[in-house]
Amino acid sequence: MKKRLVRALSIVCCGTLLAGEAGYVGYAGNTTASQSSSSALAGISAATVMNLNDYDQPITAVDTATTGASGYGYTNLGICQVEGNLNIRESASEEASLVGKLPNEAGCEIVATEGEWYQITSGEVSGYVKASYILTGQDALNLAATLASTKAVVNTNNLRVRSEMSTDASVMTTVSSGEELEVLEQLDGWVKVSVDSDEGYVSSEYVTVVEGLNDAMTLTEARYGEGVSDVRVDLINNATQYVGNPYVWGGTSLTHGADCSGFVMAIYAQYGISLPHSSRAQANYGTKISASEAQPGDLFFYGSGKSISHVAIYIGNGQIVHASSKKTGIKISNAFYRNPICVTRLISE
């Protein structure tokens, strides 16, 4: 659920995820991931959970006079324009280490210009990007006006999402502090929000409604430690390569669109495990375990009350990868962004 806002008015919101210059990582129709599983990665105890190969394109010089647009909480607004995700590097060099990725149409603060590179900040990420992929000036402001979305930032722990606008209504789920919920409608004392594919209501007292752009995602590495099989490592590297691809209700395509259970079904099918196309039904497969026992590759199930309506793959370090909603597509989230109903294990080794 944290497809983060870069900045909202004068509020800076945090964000997390992974990395890809104009790499087609997680871009529908151009993903670098194979539809068949890759060979198991022997002897790996720490693995980067994205394909970090760059897609090289000619770099054109940028007229720095076009920068300087102020608005939407930025003093020098830039908007990423690339198919897929833009690499953010530690220094102004293609050889520099990756520190994050800037999704297409995400915003950033341009701090300085260094040759054909911009030094930027976006969300929790600071680094350098190729300037030829950043829209600036009035064009950036015009585009921002069409991209800005309204989010409700949760400012309390375990915020109750209710089925109706009443404190007597049933609690669908609870959401952690700092999470951002898509706002569907603002009402008297209540905010109608979207939580994955579910709709509910939260008290306006416990959220801050802001308008802003998406921001950068941090480079996330899953460090598994001893006892995690190569199959699990391979499955996570495989699944996370599709981050950024679209959510399609009823879909099972990893490149052209899948819903939550379709995504899980398609990934597990590559490892010889057949699952039904239903999160509720998938919860009946495998062995139920506690969340504290979860290893990469196990499944987390969410929903309203005790009714399951969403499923995600655990990737380690308290994170999941899942087909979240039409708004966000396939993404990585905190495993406890909402309370899981149950956790199951299908991989025995």
Radius of gyration: 20 Å
The fold-level CATH name of the largest domain is SH3 type barrels
- The proportion of residues in beta strands is 35-45%
Helix content: 10-25%
**Structural class, judged by helices and strands?**
mainly beta
Strand order of the largest sheet: 2-1-18-12-15-16-17
Q: Kindly, what is the distance between the CA atoms of the first and last residues, rounded to a whole number of angstroms?
A: 30 Å
How many domains? 3
Question: Can you name the CATH architecture of the largest domain?
Answer: Roll
The biggest sheet, with number of strands, parallel, antiparallel or mixed sense and barrel status, is: 7 strands, antiparallel
Which runs of at least 5 residues are low in confidence (pLDDT < 50)?
1-66, 220-226
Oligomer: single chain
The overall average pLDDT, rounded, is 79
Describe the structure.
This protein has 349 residues and is mainly beta. The protein has 3 domains: 5-147, SH3 Domains (SH3 type barrels), CATH 2.30.30; 155-208, SH3 type barrels (Roll), CATH 2.30.30; 228-345, endopeptidase fold (from Nostoc punctiforme), CATH 3.90.1720.10. The chain is 10% helix and 39% strand. The protein is built from 4 helices and 28 strands. Strands 2-1-18-12-15-16-17 form a 7-stranded antiparallel beta sheet, with no helix packed on it. A 6-stranded antiparallel beta sheet has the order 23-28-24-25-26-27. The model is unreliable at 1-66 and 220-226 (pLDDT under 50).
